[in-house]
């Protein structure tokens, strides 16, 4: 998917309304869905979290984290965290839009910001938090028919998404946010998925 195709489809449709119960005592956090153009195709930047972290250790995630008192707003939080975690310069970021806030089981309410990036320097990982930085072609994670869903009854969800890519398994909040991005960009395919259980 090219930059122009993505921007056209992202701005063409209103974001789908996702109904979630009102949650109290969730701490605000934010992430960047950072899209990088390579060979006329967009890739999404992801990290594998360090195995030593307290929350979501070893999982694949977006750059981001919890809001700090000195952050101006949640976008500032996402940009600061991306700079700390992967060395992304704030001047290399262009805001496209945002998705709905996404609650997670670790008691955070995550606001995902969709951005285009044009980094002028290589990524540099924060070794205590990030085990690896990698990219995935955006087209690979936006096809709902490649999404697996596990149905359950806990927390605020009745299903958990899994998105396999090569030797990796994207799941949890990262897969859920990518699923919501896919449903935004391709609303005509919202009902597509592969069941993991009955």
From TrEMBL:
Cofactor entry: Mg(2+); Mn(2+)
Annotated keywords: Hydrolase, Magnesium, Manganese, Metal-binding
Organism: Pseudidiomarina gelatinasegens
Nudix hydrolase domain sequence ranges: 26-158
Gene3D superfamilies, per database record: Nucleoside Triphosphate Pyrophosphohydrolase
SUPFAM superfamilies: Nudix
InterPro entries: CoAse (IPR045121), NUDIX_hydrolase-like_dom_sf (IPR015797), NUDIX_hydrolase_dom (IPR000086)
Pfam family, one: NUDIX
Entry keyword Coiled coil: no
Protein name: CoA pyrophosphatase
Gene Ontology MF terms: coenzyme A diphosphatase activity; metal ion binding
């Amino acid at each position: 998917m090219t930059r122009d195709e993505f921007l056209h489809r992202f701005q063409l449709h209103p974001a789908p309304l996702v109904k979630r119960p009102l949650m109290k005592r969730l701490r605000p956090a934010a992430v960047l869905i950072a899209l990088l153009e390579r060979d006329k195709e967009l890739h999404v930047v992801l990290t594998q979290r360090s195995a030593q972290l307290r929350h979501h250790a070893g999982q694949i995630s977006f750059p981001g984290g919890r809001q700090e008192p000195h952050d101006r707003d949640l976008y500032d939080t996402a940009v600061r965290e991306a700079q700390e975690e992967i060395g992304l310069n704030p001047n290399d970021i262009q805001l496209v839009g945002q998705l709905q806030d996404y609650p997670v089981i670790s008691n955070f309410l995550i606001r995902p910001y969709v951005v285009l990036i044009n980094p002028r320097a290589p990524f540099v990982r924060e070794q205590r938090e990030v085990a690896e930085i990698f990219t995935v072609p955006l087209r690979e994670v936006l096809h709902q028919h490649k999404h697996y869903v596990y149905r359950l009854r806990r927390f605020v969800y009745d299903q958990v998404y899994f998105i396999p890519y090569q030797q990796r398994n994207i799941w949890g909040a990262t897969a859920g946010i990518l699923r919501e991005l896919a449903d935004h960009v391709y609303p005509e395919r919202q009902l597509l998925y592969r069941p993991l259980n009955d």
